[in-house]
Amino acid sequence: MPDLDDPEYARFAWARFRRILSWMAVLALACALGALVILYNWVGHMPIHMGIATFLGMFGTVLMGGALMGLVFLSSGSGHDERVDRISGTYDPGRADDPE
Length: 100
Description:
This protein has about 100 residues and is mainly α. The chain is built from three helices and no strands.
């Protein structure tokens, strides 16, 4: 079972996370610029602060979603979820998914 305690696997897993995050940053940039273009076509000339707020809001939201998605992939792919589930089964005998 892969584990983040193994330095070689941890290096691989974090590299994969950074790769996902870098692609999400490119997507966030495209979404933010697209939002500015759509807003400009809809509203026309807009104040600079409105453009900056729109860009930062869109970029930050998409990037945060990508970071959280990447962390879910990291947690699931590293076996961390299964290890926590085993520990939870020991301390929570009345779980709904308990086969007993």
